[in-house]
């Protein structure tokens, strides 16, 4: 295997997280996850339970992804095989959480279509779209992390 920083088998360090696959997905995950967080926070929270789950998932994944990105950027990973496996597990859990949050958010949005004002409905629709985009990004990152993990 080549020692280039762009190969799947290497865990990146420093600015390498902006040039390697799947680590280049950290920034879009943060952007779309942050948009979900902001859009859900801007709307009327009724019913509170599904919206609360969406907020938990978006805030949790935002903070964890940012922390995970910092660990890789600062070179805090030493045992490469373990970190590659942990990267796969984290992104798999995040993809599952985001999928469950996206489905709950879409259900609530469809149910309150008739009773909410147009502005809140548009914000909710945007949050649903961005939530599914974040789910897709985390899923792609999971698959690519699994491939990288298997190359060790």
From TrEMBL:
GO biological-process terms attached to the record: myelination
GO cellular component: membrane
GO molecular function terms attached to this record: structural constituent of myelin sheath
Subcellular localization: Membrane
Source organism superkingdom: Eukaryota
Keywords noted in UniProt: Membrane, Transmembrane, Transmembrane helix
Membrane topology classification: Multi-pass membrane protein
MARVEL domain: residues covered: 17-150
TM regions (residue ranges): 24-46, 52-76, 88-105, 125-147
Primary subcellular site in the record, as a coarse category: membrane
InterPro entries, per database record: MAL, Marvel, MARVEL-CKLF_proteins
Keyword Ribonucleoprotein: no
UniProt cross-references to PANTHER family, sorted A to Z: MAL, T CELL DIFFERENTIATION PROTEIN A (PTHR22776:SF94), MARVEL-CONTAINING POTENTIAL LIPID RAFT-ASSOCIATED PROTEIN (PTHR22776)
Protein known as: MARVEL domain-containing protein
Organism of provenance: Pleuronectes platessa (European plaice)
Taxonomic lineage from the root: Eukaryota, Metazoa, Chordata, Craniata, Vertebrata
């Amino acid at each position: 295997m080549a020692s280039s920083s762009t190969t799947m088998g290497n865990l990146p360090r420093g600015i390498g997280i902006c040039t390697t696959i799947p680590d280049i997905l950290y920034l879009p995950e943060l952007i779309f996850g942050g948009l979900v967080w902001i859009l859900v926070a801007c709307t009327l929270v009724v019913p509170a339970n599904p919206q609360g789950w969406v907020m938990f998932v978006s805030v949790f994944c935002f903070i964890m992804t940012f922390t995970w990105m910092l660990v890789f950027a600062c070179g805090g990973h030493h045992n490469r095989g373990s970190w590659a496996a942990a990267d796969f597990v984290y992104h798999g859990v995040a993809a599952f959480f985001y999928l469950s949050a996206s489905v709950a958010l879409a259900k609530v949005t469809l149910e309150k279509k008739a009773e909410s004002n147009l502005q809140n409905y548009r914000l909710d629709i945007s949050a649903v779209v961005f939530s599914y985009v974040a789910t897709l990004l985390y899923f792609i990152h999971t698959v690519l992390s699994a491939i990288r993990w298997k190359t060790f």
